[in-house]
Amino acid sequence: MVHPASSCGYWEEGKTGWTVGAVAPPSAPDEGVAIATALMPPVCTVGIGLAKADPAAASGVLLLFLSNFAAISAAAAGVFYFIGFRAERNTRGNGPLPRGFLISGVLLLGVALPLASITTRTIAEAREQRAI
Q: Considering 88, 116, 130, 131, which has the largest number of Cβ atoms within 10 A of its Cβ?
């Protein structure tokens, strides 16, 4: 079924509701497999880290999970926005961007700060090791 507001996408009724494909009709499990590949291994590893009472490992992999989740959310918000799937007007404020972009931005910023800190620390440690 083609949605009238969508000029470059198509609509397909799936088992869990409405899904949208931006370019070509995917097979049914494609989206789920892509998301599960990015999200399930970190979540399982967090559980293993907690079960082994290793909070350092669990927290590091939790950061990986959160970064994957934030990236998927931001990409989905962008794709939906650019193919024309958006609200008629912003009902929660008068800003030019939809709430989805704002939420995705907060998620990305919340993950980017710890990742930047870890990266800076790792680079400093590598420089120390090289100097020794």
A: 116
Among 40, 36, 14, 17, smallest CA distance to 25 is for 14
Helix/strand/coil for 98: coil
Residue 2 domain flag? no
Assigned domain for 80 exists: yes
What pLDDT digit, counting tens, does each position of 18-68 carry?
Answer: 444 555 555 657 677 777 888 899 999 999 999 999 998 899 999 999 999
Q: Which of 27, 8, 15, 13 is nearest to 84 (CA)?
A: 8
**Residue 16: per-residue pLDDT:** 42
Neighbours of 109 (CB within 10 A): 10
Which amino acid belongs to residue 32? G
Q: Count the domains in the chain.
A: 1
Round to whole Å and give the CA distance between 89 and 72.
24
CB 79 within 8 A of CB 2: no
Residue 113 belongs to what domain range? 10-131
Beta strands in the chain (DSSP E): 10-13, 18-21
